[in-house]
C-alpha cells in the first residue's frame, strides 16, 4: 500500500481517551479494530483530505484502487458506500465515483481541507496561542493516567532520539499534544487544535517528501525533546502559567527549526 494511503494504526490512544466526552461534532472515526472495509475507507478519506484526490475530481477505477489499497472489490465498494453516506464521495451510476465539494464534508474536515492553503506562519501562530492556552487549562484538568502517559511518551521520545528515528518521534509528538488537548476540558478548543495540528502535519509530510528531515542533526532534534521535557515538568509541578510558557516556547522552537519567524506582533496578544 502507498505510504500516503496506509491506514492509521488500529489502536488510537487519543480516540480511546476521548470516548464518552462531549457530543460536539468531529470527524468520524472510520477505522475499526479489524475491518478491512473501515481501513480502506480511512485510507481513501486520508487521500481526499491530503489533496491526493482533489474535490470535484473522479476517483481512480475500482481495479486500480483495489490494487493500491490491497482490498477486494467487495470491501472497496462497501468503503465507498460509507464515504458516500458521510458526504465525501458521490457514486454516479454509469459515470463513476467523484469526490464531493468540501461543503458536503463533515465540518471538521472542511476546515482541515482549507488548512492546506494556510501559510506555515499562520498555522504556527495559531498553534502558539491555542496550544499555550490548552496547556494552561490542562494542568487543572489532567488526571494521573494522562500525566503518567505524558511521562511515558517523554521517555519514549528519549529512546527515539537515541535511535534517531524521526518518524517515531513524530508519532510520539502527535500523541503527546493530543493528550494535552484532551485534558484541557474545552471541546471547542479541542476541535480547533485538531484542525490546526492536522494542517501543520500535512505541511510537514509534504515538505519532508521533498526535503531533508527537520534539522537533520541530533543536536537540533534533541532541542525538540528538551522542549517537551519542560512541558512535562510544568505539569508535574502543577504550574499552569509555566505550562503555557513551556508550550509556547516549544512552538517558537518548532517555527525556528522550520525556517519560520514569528514576529513580536504575531505573539504579542497575551
Automatic annotation (TrEMBL):
What keywords are annotated for this sequence in UniProt? DNA-binding, Transcription, Transcription regulation
Disordered, as annotated region? 1-32
Species for this entry: Cereibacter changlensis
The lineage's top-level taxon is Bacteria
Residues making up the signal peptide according to the UniProt record:
none
Annotated InterPro entries = GntR_C, TF_FadR/GntR_C, Tscrpt_reg_HTH_GntR, WH-like_DNA-bd_sf, WH_DNA-bd_sf
| PROSITE patterns given in the database record | HTH_GNTR
Tell me what this protein is called. Answer: FadR family transcriptional regulator
Q: Which Gene3D superfamilies match?
A: GntR ligand-binding domain-like, Winged helix-like DNA-binding domain superfamily/Winged helix DNA-binding domain
Q: Which residues form the HTH gntR-type domain?
A: 34-102
What is an example of a GO molecular function annotated in this UniProt entry? DNA binding
Amino acid at each position: 500500500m502507498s505510504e500516503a494511503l496506509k491506514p492509521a494504526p488500529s489502536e488510537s490512544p487519543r480516540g480511546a481517551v476521548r470516548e464518552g466526552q462531549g457530543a460536539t461534532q468531529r470527524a468520524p472515526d472510520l477505522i475499526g479494530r479489524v475491518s478491512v472495509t473501515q481501513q480502506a475507507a480511512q485510507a481513501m478519506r486520508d487521500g481526499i483530505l491530503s489533496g491526493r484526490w482533489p474535490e470535484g475530481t473522479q476517483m481512480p477505477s475500482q481495479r486500480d484502487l483495489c490494487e493500491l489499497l490491497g482490498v477486494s472489490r467487495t470491501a472497496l465498494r462497501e468503503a465507498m458506500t460509507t464515504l458516500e453516506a458521510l458526504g465525501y464521495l458521490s457514486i454516479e451510476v454509469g459515470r463513476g465515483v467523484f469526490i464531493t465539494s468540501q461543503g458536503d464534508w463533515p465540518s471538521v474536515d472542511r476546515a482541515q481541507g482549507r488548512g492546506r492553503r494556510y501559510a506555515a506562519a499562520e498555522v504556527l501562530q495559531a498553534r502558539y496561542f491555542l496550544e499555550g492556552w490548552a496547556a494552561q487549562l490542562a494542568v487543572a484538568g489532567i488526571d494521573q493516567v494522562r500525566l503518567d502517559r505524558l511521562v511515558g511518551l517523554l521517555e519514549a521520545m528519549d529512546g527515539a532520539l537515541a535511535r534517531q528515528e524521526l518518524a517515531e518521534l513524530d508519532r510520539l509528538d502527535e500523541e503527546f499534544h493530543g493528550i494535552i488537548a484532551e485534558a484541557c476540558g474545552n471541546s471547542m478548543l479541542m476541535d480547533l487544535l485538531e484542525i490546526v495540528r492536522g494542517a501543520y502535519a500535512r505541511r510537514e509530510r509534504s515538505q519532508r517528501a521533498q526535503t531533508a528531515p527537520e534539522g537533520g542533526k541530533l543536536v537540533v532534534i534533541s532541542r525538540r525533546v528538551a522542549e517537551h521535557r519542560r512541558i512535562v515538568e510544568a505539569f508535574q509541578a502543577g504550574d499552569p502559567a509555566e505550562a503555557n510558557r513551556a508550550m509556547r516556547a516549544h512552538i517558537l522552537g518548532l517555527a525556528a527549526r522550520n525556517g519560520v519567524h514569528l514576529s513580536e506582533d504575531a505573539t504579542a496578544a497575551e
